[in-house]
Design a protein that fits this description.
mainly beta, Immunoglobulin-like, 4 domains, seven-stranded mixed sheet, five-stranded antiparallel sheet, disordered N terminus, signal
Amino acid sequence: MKKFYIISIVFLLFTAFSFAQIAVSPLSVEKDVRAGEEFVATINVIGGNTTQNVSIELYQMTQDLSGNFDYVEATPDNFLYSSWIEFPNSITVSPRSTTPVEVSVNIPSKAPFGTYNFILMITPEVETSGTIGIIIRYAIPITVHVQGTVITRAEVEDVKVVPDEEGKPVIEATISNGSSYDLVISAEAILRDKSGRMIERLPLKSPYMENNNRTAQRILKGNKVVFSGKPTYLLAPGEYKVNLFVNYSNRQRVFTYDITVPEEGFNFTPPTELALILDNTEFSYELYPGAVKTFVINLQNMSNQNVTVQVGGEEFASLPQAKDRSLLSWITLRSPSSFIVNPQRTSRVILSINVPKEVENGAYYGKIVLNAYDESGEFLSQKKVNVETVIGEVNYDVELVSSNYEKIEGSGIFSALIKNTGERYIIPNGSLSILDSDGVSIGVYDLLPYSQEWLVPSQETMLIGEVPILEGEGYRYILTIYNTEQRLKVFEGELM
């Protein structure tokens, strides 16, 4: 079962200044148990500079449609499982000492299989003295998975196209977790015209994923979350088809919907890509500790109006040890961060990479973001430039998370969810050989990602390709994953 940790530290205002806040370790506990078992988790509360009384309360975790989590004080009336857990309601913590809190969890012998979330809210008591200060509360999740027959079930309740605040079309999908376990879910959509021709692929994310730079969403059992994405090329009203790929528990499900997008309520604007055209969107350098490298981003304004360009930076999502593998702090902008480009004219952005003298070997990443605005300040276009710096030797590797075969729109679709487990970005593609029950190949087919963007370490993407409709059983596949043309790894498995 894929694990997904939520750690919450709650800041509260109070009318006193605290000279010594407590600390808590660990910040989360997760256990796989059987019905009838009991375990004890120890939470260590570490004192500050003064003796403090600390209260401990039981809360339950809730989740809204945006995917955000909240905590509600638990009582026997609103939380049926409150009798499973025992702990002291308060402790006294001495200065600079560690006080262990033993939390006993007793699983009833007839407990149903599934995930159970308990939240311990640990709060130091503070004497008020009339000044404004901050107190830190710790919400410690204790997640218990009662093991048994695992039946995971994710369903799509609704898929629709709605206008955003500017009237631009947004694909929304409401995904529910009907399982007895929490699920970690990611989703991707293929937008097609009414004849079935693919227009574009795009990831769908919840507001929680967007705000926390996540590539997947944990959905509590019995809950549902709305995922959404803004298509680039849905430029007119009409009839469309949406294939929705839902990934969870190393499984994939595909849902297909026919959607009508009306003209009313939407603001279908013409493409504005001509306002900002770049000659290069990728820069990669092999450098050494202490090195300095200057590079230039050349751009053009091919529209018929003046364009203001603003320059900023952005992190890659899902980088391992993100602060250690980010190079944004190494980059210095040596040209203005905001400037005007006249119609049919060119300009450039000058930057330099300053590698620290003490840095570990590895690949480091960041994005330069350029936004274009018209003379009234209205947003026109955005371009992102990938920047990589490689220090020393690095390796490539990839993992097959899951694969799936479906019959869609009169053809077969094979999809493979892969993860970059190496140290450097890849631009993946796949070659799929299908073998019948006698081991004879019936063909070789290409699998492609929805874009040719960099897949940085720890990121996942889906490769999809059309294959024949397969009848009968006993088919197997041989999947070869490439980084552009470099072969990385071969996987084999049963197809049906």
